[in-house]
Amino acid sequence: MFSNYLAYLQEKGMAQNTIISYANDLKSFFHEMNIQPDDYVTAADIRKWINGMLSPTDVKPLAVSTINRRLNSLRSYYAWAVKNQRLQHNPMIDIQDLKTADEESEKIMWLTEEEFGDLLDRIRKKPIKSRGVDPEEKYRRDRAIIYLLTYAGPRVDELSNLKLTDIDLELKRMRIVGKGNKVRTIPISNTLLAEIEDWLSFRAEMAKKKPHVDQSPYVFYSQRSPKFTVRGIQTMVEGYSLPNKKLTPHMFRHTFCKWMLKATNNDIEKVRRLAGHSNIATTSRYLKDSYSDLADAVEAMPRF
């Protein structure tokens, strides 16, 4: 039954990384509760599992966001099982996501303009630790990726899969294939256009020297592969982290949404379409102010 469910997710066109995430969450549940995929499960079992994640005896408690992601995986699995008459009872019907006092602050982290400027400086100055890596090539590639993540807001798998044919420099727009194979078109700003043109020009020169680049249909490649993988991008981004702030590709997507809301005077619908959110509630999370925003607001009060 479990394999049938994974096949169903593939038929829906769900991204492979998402399917893997769902599978891992479900395997964790089955293993930790010592049950089989087709066993009868009650809401009490689910609540027991939640309590175990919140108050484990020998490991660090899981973040609320991680627990809610796992619950969402179970919700999808049991809804499918009941709908397809594999099971008679859905134990997730009365199970709600966990909430925290400041839930969105836990989930969303973005860069300020000052932090973004500092990051660009780090990219320029960070020494190369791997032998055989061209410093200029790495700098140009990493910089182009950071700009694309920040000024277009793609998910990391969308960026990894971005092809040369997806970018139209003349019309200044970019085609992105998102979750469920949904396609969205992103206008390319003049700021981003200059960075993309610079990278593509350099990439064309590299294609003359490296066969795997010449044969690659993708915008970004690695040292030995025609495609820069999701894990490769994640590792590259994390490499520029500061001791007090770990960087992730998704943080730049958050930054894109946050900056776009400011640029559009909080036009949620525009940002929803640009980010490829299927539900506007997802986009509305970015309306929440950061702590620094709140501190600035307090300082701006009249003084007497």
From TrEMBL:
Keyword set, alphabetical order: DNA integration, DNA recombination, DNA-binding
SUPFAM superfamilies on file: DNA breaking-rejoining enzymes
Domain Core-binding (CB), residue spans: 1-82
Entry keyword annotation includes DNA-binding: yes
The keyword Transit peptide is annotated on this UniProt entry: no
Source organism superkingdom: Bacteria
Annotated GO MF terms: DNA binding
A biological process from GO: DNA recombination
InterPro entries: CB, DNA_brk_join_enz, Integrase-like_cat_sf, Integrase_catalytic, Integrase_recombinase_N, Integrase_SAM-like_N, Tyrosine_recombinase_XerCD
Domain Tyr recombinase per the UniProt entry, residue ranges: 106-299
Pfam family, one: Phage_int_SAM_1
Matching PANTHER family: INTEGRASE_RECOMBINASE PROTEIN MJ0367-RELATED, PHAGE INTEGRASE-RELATED
Family indicated by similarity: Belongs to the 'phage' integrase family.
This protein's name: Tyrosine-type recombinase/integrase
Organism field: Niallia endozanthoxylica
